[in-house]
Amino acid sequence: LLDDAGFLPPDVVEMVERCPSITSEPQDIAVATQTVEFMNSTFALRKCDLRKVFREQPTLLLSNAARPTGIYDTGACPAILASTAGRPAAGPRKDKNDTATSIYDTVYLLSTVGVRPKHIKEMVVRWPQLLTLPIGQMLAVTDFLTSLDFEGSVGSLYRQHPW
User: Fold this and answer.
1) For residues 145 and 157, is the Cβ–Cβ distance under 8 A?
2) Is residue 158 within 8 Å of 113, Cβ to Cβ?
3) Which residue positions in the chain have pLDDT lower than 50?
């Protein structure tokens, strides 16, 4: 899989250094294959860009259940967001919990706030950690920013200053 995607031995070493769990736990090769194929089909990345994304965020090769979880404090309470926005804050999808679905949800969120596909591709290559953020957190922050009614779009803010 890694050879086909253009990975070199130093890339694999760097990925294992950043995320040792990709070798310590038995991995479902199908999940990693699906994620690499999804990234290729969605973004049509050059091999060097695909390598960069997975070198910086090797946890994308893990299933969502195997990923290390962290709590990201956005400072935004969903109840406050709901009252500010005048509607309930959207929540993450509960039916599927795979990496490709999480990436799709992130891409969909960015496109709905006005980020063009070419800019999403640039953001993914520059800031691959964007794909590892919990979609619930992204939805909460997006809902809050939308409620502020500032000039410009939330998409342009994300493009200039992602998480």
Assistant:
1) yes
2) yes
3) 66, 68-76, 78-89
